Amino acid sequence: MKRRGARPGFSIIELIIVVAILVTVTALAIPSLRAIFGTHKLAAGVDAVRAAWALARSAAADQDRPYRFAIEPNGRHFRIAPDDESYWSGGEGPGNDPDGKGMVITDALPAGVRFILNGEPGQAPPANSAAADEKAPPSGQWEKACTFRPDGTSPEDVRIVFQVAGSAPTQLQLRGLTGVSYVTKPK
Predict the structure, then answer these.
(1) Residue 127 DSSP class
(2) C-alpha span between 114 and 165 (Å, rounded)
(3) 127 pLDDT above the threshold of 60
(4) Average of per-residue pLDDT across 38-51
(5) By the 8 A CB rule, do 78 and 108 touch?
(6) pLDDT surpassing 60 at residue 15
(7) Closest listed residue to residue 41, CA positions, set 79, 76, 74
(8) CATH number for the domain including 172?
(9) What are the pLDDT digits (tens) for 69-125?
(10) Residue 7 forms part of a structural domain
(11) Contact at 8 Å (CB) between 184 and 137?
């Protein structure tokens, strides 16, 4: 019968070195992971606004009346409704609208993403509390970004800068004359 010898183990120094390496690698990886998540949040925010613009253009053409797209100033909420003050003065529109009940949609960007209307990429929006981040703003807190006419055009050219912590800003631009939107990375 063969006898087993003493089994070699790890010294405490070796274990401390391995733990230190793991902590260092983790510390280096966290900022990269945050940037990746920030980039995905920005892309989701841009896609949400582009989809809202397409929906507003479609509703304007289908209902043969202008639709407004407005944003919460320096916030994350946006709204689509007919370009009639009765839809923007605190209600869902008049009950007896001669053109029929208009589509009203209020939505928000992903948490942490903010946008600035016709702003500059370096212009950081003010920090909001977590509670304010989840609630829609009170009526009258909407800043008109653009109006879509029934022919699909807009009288305004619009530039919206999207920002999230840990990621480079992204711009979404609307060419009013053609109604075409495109995404750029600010310089």
Answers:
(1) P
(2) 10
(3) no
(4) 89
(5) yes
(6) yes
(7) 76
(8) 3.55.40.10
(9) 998 887 788 999 999 888 887 666 666 676 678 888 888 888 888 888 876 655 555
(10) no
(11) no
Q: Give the number of C-alpha atoms closer than 13 A to the C-alpha of residue 56, restricted to the C-beta side.
A: 29
**What are the structure tokens assigned to 36, written together?**
């990746």
| CA atoms of 93 and 103, how far apart (whole Å) | 9
Tokens of 53: 């613009």
Place of tokens 């949609």: 105
Q: How many domains does the chain have?
A: 1
Q: What is the spatial distance between Cα 22 and Cα 13, in angstroms, rounded to a whole number? A: 14
Task: Evaluate whether residue 3 is within a structural domain.
Answer: no
Write the burial class of residue 80 (CB in 10 Å: 0-12 exposed, 13-18 middle, 19+ buried).
Answer: buried
Cα→Cα distances 62→65, 149, 152, Å: 8, 11, 10
**Mean pLDDT throughout 151-158?**
90
Assess if residue 5 is contained within a domain.
no
What is the per-residue pLDDT for 16? 95
Name the residue range of residue 82's domain: 12-184
Residue type at position 105: I
Q: Is residue 144 part of a domain?
A: yes
